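REQUEST ID: PR-0412
SUBMITTED BY: lab tech R.K.
PRIORITY: routine
TASK: structure prediction, single protein chain
INPUT:
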Amino acid sequence: MTTTRTDDNPDELHSLTPRRRAEAADLDRDYTLGRGPAEQDRLQRQAAHLRGLSAALLDHVPAQSGSALVDLGCGPTGILDLMAGRAGPSGCVVGVDLDPAHVESARAFARERGLANVAIVRGDARRTSLPSATFDLAHTRLVLTNISNPEQVAHEMARLLKPEGHAAALEVDLLGLCYPPHPAWERLTDLLTAVSRCRGADAHVGRRLPELLRGAGLTDIGVEARTEVCPPGHPQRTVITDLIDHSRSKIVQTGLADDAELDSLLAAARRHLAAPSTIVLPVIYFLAWARKP
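STATUS: complete
OUTPUT:
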């Protein structure tokens, strides 16, 4: 498969076509966690932490050498290297992301890793404009929880798949378990759920993965749930407070809390998390896979 699609200069919003301007507006409106270098850095750290889970997910779906794979909402790295290894030199991987900065970072990542079988295109995971029935595997990770209408991504995955192709998805489900309980932590967890809801997203979309894949016409659905206790120093111990930081502007804009309350809540929650005796299970990860008949 060839991927000859090119994109306008990602740094020049005024040069974008009307469709690209509409997509950029969608990104600002829909994506709960904001944009910019801090978000890119968070996504890259997240990708490193989730690498093992993503490899386990890929083990549930056939992806032989020579296959065509697509990663919807790949972000700055996604699982492009894992997918490239599965596809082999005779296969191909297409990464899709709507954020121009993520597109450039993903292209740089592919160059630095020597992933010659990887191409990155700019597009919305809900409507990629890639040709139908092209891919043997369609993948998405932690995209559905951050956007409205996640069923559209599931349908897009099904559209892109060849008959007998496979879909694979890894999504989060906000658990927010902290013991001993603490009111600041509970308020922050509630705020994350609320700001997602205000944006039309679902912080608990992980449990819906099988339903979404089934609704897209896929069959032979499998699902696993994974979670872990996060001790002090674990990269996910502070994920709730980190996500509040990244979604702060949208929390304030929607009137759910003001900056003063957020500062107070974050300080109290971080003191609680600093105690070695505090037990934290912030999220459940759902891994799901399916086949296109």
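NOTES: Residues 232 and 275 are 8 Å apart (CA to CA).
REVIEWED BY: pending
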